[in-house]
Amino acid sequence: METSTDTQKSRFKTWATTIFVCAFLFVWLSGMTAGMMAGACRKDHYEGAQKLRFCNISLAAGAWMKFSTHERAKGSRIELERGIALSQLGKVEQAVEAFEEALRNARAKPGPWEQLLHRRMVHMEDSNMLALWVSVIEAAN
Questions:
Q1: pLDDT tens, N- to C-terminus, the chain (141 residues)
Q2: How far is 20 from 133, CA to CA, in rounded Å?
Q3: Using CA atoms, how far apart are residues 68 and 50, in angstroms rounded to an integer?
Q4: Global pTM?
Q5: Which of 23, 33, 37, 39 has CA 20 to 30 A from 14's CA?
Q6: How many CA atoms lie within 13 A of 109 on its CB side?
């Protein structure tokens, strides 16, 4: 015969397992979504509104990861790509804000992050976008 203590333990175990599974699925699904959308965001195949959509989804899905300076530094590339998309759409002020955020995030952790952003921008064929990037670098220094 099962006692009330055994029933309470069983219910607790069931709830604890359910909460763990839900938390795991949240982390896994948001990480997968952020990663897949980041891959699409970084591709030059997409431009403008479509690129911006991929970048925004990636940043939103991975927002919970920004507690870590390392994750912010890694995510600086997505913010840079978001700025590129905004610039392609003619939204210059928002593009500058995205570039500033990318630079802040890249500088959050020592490593190659800022150099990766510079390398990406040097390969851009749009001289106006490159000029925006240079203005952000100069203002930050």
A1: 556 777 888 888 889 899 999 888 888 888 888 888 988 998 888 888 999 999 999 999 887 777 888 888 988 999 999 999 999 999 999 999 999 999 999 999 899 999 999 999 988 888 888 899 999 999 988
A2: 44
A3: 28
A4: 0.82
A5: 33
A6: 15
What Rg value do the Cα atoms of the chain yield, rounded?
21
